[in-house]
Amino acid sequence: MRFVLFVIDSGSNTATPGEGAAIDAFNERLTAGNHLILAAGIAEPNRATLIDNRNDLGAITPGTLFSGPEHYSGFWIINADSPEQAQAFAVDGSRACNRRVELRPFLV
């Protein structure tokens, strides 16, 4: 089963050296267990572009869908044997990056 863990932050690339080391160790544990598919940090919302081309609308707007100070600053895409295992990984990921995370399953 595949899941995405979104990191929730009020900035991007804000990890302290200790948090960075904990994130690296978490990534290594996921990799060692063949659970990590992809992990990445993403740019802050002011570098986003919202595109809506439904029905050839052609709307291209600088910015993000989200309002407020918090946004997704990174993500992990993982393989897990169960929703419970994915939740345990999310708990560990939240601890490692010292941020809240949002866990969502992939649709099949």
Could you outline the blueprint of secondary structure elements for this entry?
Blueprint lengths: L1 E8 L7 H16 L3 E6 L7 E4 L6 E4 L8 E9 L3 H15 L2 E6 L3
Helix pairs in contact: 1-2
Structure description:
The protein has 108 residues and is α+β, with helices and mostly antiparallel strands. The protein has a single domain, classed as Dimeric alpha+beta barrel (Alpha-Beta Plaits, 2-Layer Sandwich). The chain has two helices and six strands; from the N terminus they run E-H-E-E-E-E-H-E. The strands form two sheets. It has a four-stranded antiparallel beta sheet, covered by helices on one side. Helix 1 runs antiparallel to helix 2. It is globular and about 45 Å long. 22% of the residues are buried. The mean pLDDT is 95.
Characterize this entry briefly.
InterPro entries: Dimeric_a/b-barrel (IPR011008). With 108 residues, this protein is an alpha+beta fold.
Instruction: Tell me what portion of residues adopts beta-strand conformation.
Output: 25-35%
Biggest sheet layout: 4 strands, antiparallel
- Fraction in helix: 25-40%
End-to-end Cα distance, whole Å, is 9 Å
What's the rounded overall pLDDT mean? 95
Instruction: Determine and state the CATH class.
Output: Alpha Beta
- Helix count from the secondary structure assignment: 2
Q: Which fold name corresponds to the CATH topology?
A: Alpha-Beta Plaits
Assigned CATH superfamily? Dimeric alpha+beta barrel
SS content category: alpha+beta
Summed up, the domain count is 1
| Name given to the CATH architecture | 2-Layer Sandwich
How many beta-strand elements? Answer: 6
Strand order of the largest sheet: 2-5-1-6
Judging from the principal axes of the Cα atoms, what is the shape?
Answer: globular
Low-confidence stretches: none
